[in-house]
């Protein structure tokens, strides 16, 4: 029903939505920023980046592929992908990192879909959804 044709509630008044305090999101953002500044001042990030580079350099041309494999496995296990995304430009340079992250993100998504499809098919018992046979036909061969 279009919004203009909707009936008014009894009494002609519209219900008033409960107001949320406006200061909490700003306070949360400030606390997060403060925590990041404290961590940046106390943790030697440059030393960790250099240690990671020294471990990746011996891999040579295989380093991007190894990075993609580690990224896919880590994200399938539930590890956040943001640290990998932030690390890749320091390892490979800005433009190669874009290509590496496109491949890694696509591989992670494909692996997650495959894992979900296989676990859905292996689920015992009848399917609750009426769309189940249709979904099964569409995902056959993945």
Outline the secondary-structure elements.
Layout: H1 23-42, H2 45-56, H3 63-76, H4 82-92, H5 94-122, H6 132-139
Helix pairs in contact: 3-5, 4-5
Describe the structure.
- The chain has 142 residues and is mainly alpha-helical.
- The chain has a domain at 27-123.
- It has helices at 23-42, 45-56, 63-76, 82-92, 94-122, 132-139.
- Helix 3 (63-76) crosses helix 5 (94-122) and helix 4 runs antiparallel to helix 5.
- The chain is flat, with a radius of gyration of 25 Å.
- The two termini are 41 Å apart.
Descriptive labels:
mainly alpha; 6 helices
The value of Rg in angstroms is 25 Å
Q: Whole-number average pLDDT?
A: 81
Task: Count all strands and give the number.
Answer: 0
Regions with pLDDT < 50 over 5+ consecutive residues?
none
Give the % helix.
55-70%
Quick overview of this protein structure:
With 142 residues, the protein is mostly helical. The chain is 66% helix and 0% strand. It has a domain at 27-123.
């Amino acid at each position: 029903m279009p919004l203009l044709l909707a009936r008014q509630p009894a009494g002609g008044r519209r219900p008033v939505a409960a107001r949320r305090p406006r200061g909490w999101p700003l306070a949360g953002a400030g606390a997060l920023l403060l925590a990041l500044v404290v961590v940046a001042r106390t943790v030697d990030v440059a030393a960790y980046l250099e240690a990671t580079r020294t471990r990746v350099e011996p891999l040579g041309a295989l380093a991007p592929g190894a990075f993609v494999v580690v990224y896919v496995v880590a994200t399938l296990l539930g590890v956040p992908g943001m640290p990998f995304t932030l690390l890749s430009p320091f390892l490979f340079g800005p433009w190669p990192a874009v290509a590496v992250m496109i491949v890694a993100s696509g591989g992670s998504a494909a692996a997650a879909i495959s894992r979900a499809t296989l676990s859905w098919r292996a689920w015992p018992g009848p399917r609750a959804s009426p769309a189940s046979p249709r979904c099964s036909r569409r995902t056959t061969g993945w």
